[in-house]
Inverse folding.
C-alpha cells in the first residue's frame, strides 16, 4: 500500500495496531503517522517503530488517507468536534473506540464520510487479536478489503452487524482481562501445590492456548472437548464439580453481559456530552 495511515492516539491499542501493520509489511514506517496528546508517547513510538509523528493533528488528517481514531471514547467527541471540518470526505475513518456507534460517529463527523467501527483487543500486540468490524453505507468494496487486511494483520477479523458490537466487547474486547485472571488463578492453584510461580504461568498459559487451539481447529464443540478430558471417576470431574458449585459459568456469562452493558452506556454518555 502506498498511502499513509494516521493514528490519533498512540496508547495501548494504537501502538499494537501500528506495530502489527509494520510487522506484516502492510505499511512501511514512513507511511505511518501518529498524533498523541502526550508528547513522550510519540517520541517513544518514533524511536521504537521509526514512524512519523506530528504535533499538528490537522497535518495528520490532511496527509493520511486512512485515519484511525484510537483515543478513549470519553475524549472522542471533543477530538472530532475540532477535526470534523478538516477531514476530506474521501478519507476512510476507522474508530476503535468502545461504545461509540456508527450513527454517533456520523453525527460527530458527517453522514457523507466513509466510516468504520471496529472492536479489537490487546492480543494484537502479539498478532493474535480478535476484531469485529462494521462499516457505514459509504464504505466501498475496495475500502472494505483494505480494512479487513489491516485488521487481519493483527490476528483474526470478521465483519459483524453493529447490533453485535456490545457482545463483541464482552466476548473478545474485554475478555483478555478475564482470561489473565483465570491464568493467574490457575497458576496460584499450582503454587499451592508447590510449583514456582514462573513455571506455573507457563503451564497455565500453554494449557489455555492449547485449549483455545482445540476449539478453533479440532471441529469439536466445547461440550465434547470437556467430556474428552473428564475421565469417569477421574481428576477433572472433581474440579468441574467445584467450578459448577461456585457458579463459574454463570459468573462468566454475567461478566460478559456487564461489559456489554457498559459498552452500551459509554455510547449514551457520549450522546449526553
Ligand atoms: N485497551 C484495550 O484493551 C482496548 C481498547 N479499545 C479502545 O481503544 C481506544 C484506545 O484505548 P487504549 O489504547 O487502551 O487507550 P490509551 O489511553 O492507552 O491510549 C490513548 C492515547 O490517546 C491519548 N490522547 C488523549 N487525548 C487525546 C487527544 N485529544 N488527541 C490525541 N491523543 C489523545 C492518550 O494520552 P493520555 O494518556 O495523556 O490521555 C493516550 O496516549 C479506546 O477508545 C478504547 O475503548 C478497544 C479494544 C480494546
Ligand atoms: O475497558 C475498556 O473500556 C476497553 C474496551 C475493550 C477493552 N478495553
Amino acid at each position: 500500500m502506498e498511502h499513509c495511515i494516521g493514528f490519533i492516539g498512540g496508547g495501548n491499542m494504537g501502538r499494537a495496531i501500528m506495530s502489527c501493520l509494520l510487522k506484516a509489511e502492510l505499511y512501511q514506517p514512513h507511511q505511518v503517522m501518529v498524533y498523541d496528546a502526550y508528547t513522550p508517547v510519540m517520541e517513544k513510538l518514533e524511536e521504537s517503530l521509526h514512524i512519523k509523528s506530528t504535533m499538528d493533528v490537522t497535518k495528520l488528517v490532511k496527509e493520511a488517507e486512512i485515519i484511525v481514531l484510537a483515543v478513549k471514547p470519553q475524549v472522542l467527541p471533543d477530538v472530532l468536534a475540532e477535526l470534523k471540518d478538516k477531514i476530506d470526505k474521501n478519507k476512510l475513518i476507522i474508530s476503535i473506540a468502545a461504545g461509540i456507534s456508527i450513527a454517533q460517529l456520523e453525527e460527530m463527523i458527517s453522514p457523507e464520510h466513509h466510516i468504520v467501527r471496529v472492536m479489537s483487543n490487546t492480543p494484537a500486540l502479539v498478532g493474535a487479536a480478535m476484531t469485529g468490524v462494521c462499516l457505514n453505507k459509504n464504505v466501498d468494496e475496495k475500502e472494505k478489503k483494505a480494512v479487513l487486511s489491516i485488521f487481519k494483520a493483527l490476528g483474526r477479523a470478521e465483519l459483524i452487524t453493529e447490533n453485535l458490537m456490545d457482545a463483541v466487547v464482552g466476548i473478545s474486547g474485554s475478555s483478555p482481562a478475564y482470561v489473565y485472571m483465570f491464568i493467574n488463578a490457575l497458576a496460584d492453584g499450582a503454587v499451592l501445590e508447590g510449583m514456582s510461580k514462573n513455571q506455573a504461568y507457563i503451564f497455565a498459559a500453554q494449557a489455555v492456548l492449547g485449549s483455545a487451539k482445540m476449539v478453533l481447529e479440532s471441529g469439536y464443540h466445547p461440550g465434547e472437548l470437556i467430556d474428552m478430558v473428564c475421565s469417569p471417576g477421574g481428576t477433572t470431574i472433581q474440579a468441574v464439580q467445584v467450578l459448577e458449585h461456585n457458579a463459574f459459568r454463570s459468573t462468566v456469562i454475567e461478566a460478559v453481559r456487564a461489559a456489554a452493558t457498559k459498552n452500551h452506556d459509554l455510547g449514551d454518555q457520549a450522546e449526553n456530552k
